[in-house]
């Protein structure tokens, strides 16, 4: 009996081992679990696109990416695929196969990439000898020439209030040059007396292009005009000089032959005479602005004014500066600006046929930095992930000593920009600042 029982035990023990082996084999061959599949994306022509997949398993995983049925390089340990300078040929279905290296078990997921033209605006203002100023009651006719991949929308806002909204259907098939539309859109604006801001925005799935313009309506009745100008018997009027829009990013540059403003204005640097050059500056955002005349044809005095644009007599001097050096011929002014405000730049000291060169933009912020062990200098700064930024470095923080170290899109490391330079022996040898993008 004992021998028979032992035989039965061995038989059932063998069955049990076989079942356990089969079950363990099934577990070993189980496919990895894809927790987060890659997402469908629509990106601007010429930009970058990144697909990510999150998969879990007890063993190591490998990843193979495909465009359609075509493998994109060899298998790797990276769960991400980055495409740079994407073109219409990059459109399509992207898939990833996740493989358990030890067992060969696989799982797959896919997403689509679409590419389209970003919005662009070219602005033309017709039928006005002085485009930004009209008599009250007269229309300001604005024509915007634009282009964008469709579908897209065009919006006009006056002082933030929506005037109109057009939705334009796609002109052609997605992911092709035929998808882009271009044309002119006209609007007539009847502003009340005073200063106004007209904004046009063209938007689609990959971006938004905007333009902001300062408008001014003056009373058409001479009596009302006198009251509006503080009843001055001989109010000075500003010429219709060029206008600038102060936007985030690299400074703008403008050069032209100087021209008179038609009035004298007192500043803390002295009187700016009638033959000064005047320029209108519109700030889209609040911050610290910098205006420089480096590169002008002669020594300059630079003043920033603020106030009602139609009267020199009511302008307020914000700040002014004489040449930094008679050799450099540079006046440089930093001053606080408020969002949606008009400022005037007055440049004096030039002869009538002299050339003034203006550089203007927001002042980059000095980014925090520290010296790490091993002689590594590390900069850390938080920015909005959608911004383009450049890291600039200087050895002495002089205005013309800053050089761009690198330029990048978006933030890194969970919203923190991290930049390191090795072999820096003293904190005083290197300064950094962060120049934000548009």
CATH topology of the largest domain: Jelly Rolls
Count of helical regions:
2
The largest sheet, given as strand count, sense and whether it forms a barrel, is: 5 strands, mixed
Strand content: over 45%
Helix proportion of residues, in percent?
A: under 10%
Measure the end-to-end span: 91 Å
Strand order of the largest sheet: 2-9-8-5-6
Could you tell me the radius of gyration in angstroms? 32 Å
* Structure classification: mainly beta
Outline type: flat
As an assembly, this protein is single chain
Describe the structure.
It is a single chain. By secondary structure, this protein is mainly beta. The protein has five domains: 1-29; 33-116, Immunoglobulins (Immunoglobulin-like, Sandwich); 117-224, Immunoglobulins (Immunoglobulin-like, Sandwich); 229-362, Jelly Rolls (Sandwich), CATH 2.60.120; 365-436, Immunoglobulin-like (Sandwich), CATH 2.60.40. It is built from two helices and 35 strands. A five-stranded mixed β-sheet has the order 2-9-8-5-6, with no helix packed on it. A five-stranded mixed β-sheet has the order 11-17-16-13-14, with no helix packed on it. A hairpin with a 2-residue loop joins strand 16 (194-204) and strand 17.
